[in-house]
Design goal:
- The complex is a heterodimer of chains A (about 260) and B (about 325).
- With about 260 residues, chain A is α/β, with parallel strands linked by helices.
- In chain A, about 25% of the residues lie in helices and about 30% in strands.
- Chain A is globular.
- Chain A starts with a strand and ends with a helix.
- By secondary structure, chain B is α/β, with parallel strands linked by helices.
- Chain B has 2 domains: about 180 residues, Rossmann fold (3-Layer(aba) Sandwich); about 120 residues, TPP-binding domain (Rossmann fold, 3-Layer(aba) Sandwich).
- Chain B is globular, with a radius of gyration of 21 Å.
- The N and C termini of chain B lie far apart (about 55 Å).
- The chains are: A alpha/beta (about 260), B alpha/beta (about 325).
- At the A-B interface, helix 4, strand 7, strand 9, strand 10 and strand 13 of A face helix 3, helix 4, strand 7, strand 9 and strand 10 of B.
Amino acid sequence: MKILVSAKRVTDPDARIRLKSDLSGIQSEGLEFKLNPFCENAVEEAIRLRDSQGGEIVAVSIGTDDAATELRRALAMGADRAIRVAGNDAELDSDLVARVFVKIIQAEKPDLVIFGKQAVDGDSNQVAQLVAEYLGWGQACFVSHPEGSAGMTSQNPGLKVANGKVVAMREVDGGAEIVEVDLPAVVSADLRLNEPRLPTLPNIMKAKRKPLDEKTFADFGVTPNVKVKTVRYANPPERKAGIKVADVDQLLDKLTNEAKVL
Amino acid sequence: MSKILVIADHAGGQLRKGTLGVITFARQAAARNGGTVDIAVIGHNVGGVAQALTGYGAGKIYVVDSAELAKYTAQGHAQAVAEVARKAGATLVAACASTFGKDCMPRVAVKLEAGMASEVVGLGSGAGLTYVRPMWAGNVLGEVEIATPVHVVTVRTAEFDTAAPAGAPSPVETVATTVTAAALKQRLLEFRPTVSARPALTEARVVVAGGRGLKSRENFQIVYNLADILGAAVGATRAAVDAEFIENDYQIGQTGKIVAPDLYVGAGISGAIQHLAGMKNAKVIVAVNKDEEAPIFSVADYGLVADLFKVLPELTEKLKARKA
């Protein structure tokens, strides 16, 4: 089975992102970058499926030269090869990213494409769904492990692939769905799909020799126009600092007589 | 002038309240340029949902009721939504940023050759229709322009008031769909509902949430006890869900549910950025944590530095005594 996975470079998910004082963009000074956490789940799931069923994993990212760092991390986790398409986040939208992925998928012909359900910078949560629709494929989005953490052993994928179909559990409002999607299919990974492995030192060394192709939009015949553009940034309203109460009685008094919510 | 189409969110034949937040968003957008608002109800046996929406002053309520749509799939529902949007001549198609909207609406955008803005929290200040949406876990607000003739958005409904009924009853128009379930590449095999007698998390006036500090699934009972005396919904942090103290449906945060209740009580919650993204718009925030350095205190109106295993039962008992 051939699996294509996303491996986006994002700002450190645990960092408090702040805007520059002129609001032109985020303060990048001292900021670290990581592999998008949801993409880590996608890569991990691809490895579990390949290791149990055989096949190949291609990790893909659209980004600047630096995005190679996160692709190398995906390779060190266990992906077989990588493709980086040169692009700058500020000049992309979800639709353009999806159109590039569609071209790569048409060239690579994977059986399964696994995305992280959203990138923790733009928080759009669109690319997997857009790609599935452009290709006319079925999708299983926001997928978690049907057996919970007990099932998340490195040998046990949360996606069950057999007889030309993938069966998955989706996290939805009000419960969970068990869905079946014909292959080739698009999946988007939620955090509870698996526990991503940490790359070992030998695998980090090995990853340096794995193939990483550098491509451009022109290589895939994609015009880099966008439908959606962020034209302005603003700081969210700040909350006023509150007070510390001494005990439950004072808390009850404040909630009743000051905030009037009880 | 925009023609706005609100896609109703519903489950089990019942309207989901978030839809009324989308109607408020649609009214605001329509007020910008003299636009009109229609509503679409899509599914099977959804007459009751359409009925529940007739009093909100929509120009028309389009109803697509087909056995082929009885089981939700993104592929099938997106096709039906796009069909209605074309029929209505919609220039702005809006749905809740629920798991339905997030799953289905990007596919609608492709079908309508539209740009899409996710999790919209407000309209931009410019003359045309631009949309404000949170990025980086809500630490930044971005204002987006959509260059296509048709716009698709999902709306973070906690940011909009629940629409009040207004205007004349809306006429209902039935629309046929070309969706056939057998032609779809995906199928819903089973739905496993979360069973709870408490209010829905995204609709509750009061939310009591627990974090890793609860230490176990059993200990979460003290959160349930407090929630029940307050008539509150229960929520949790990602850490608590990951540790399986509680099901994923209760997760509040950047990648879980967004809540804006009148009162939020967080116990044993440190206040990770991704959790704050989901609750910092609550009107009143109470935090109970024994670590006085916990970041949640920076957004709390009332912080209590104490052991939650003492405080929560005491709070529950004192509220019970008041009621008696």
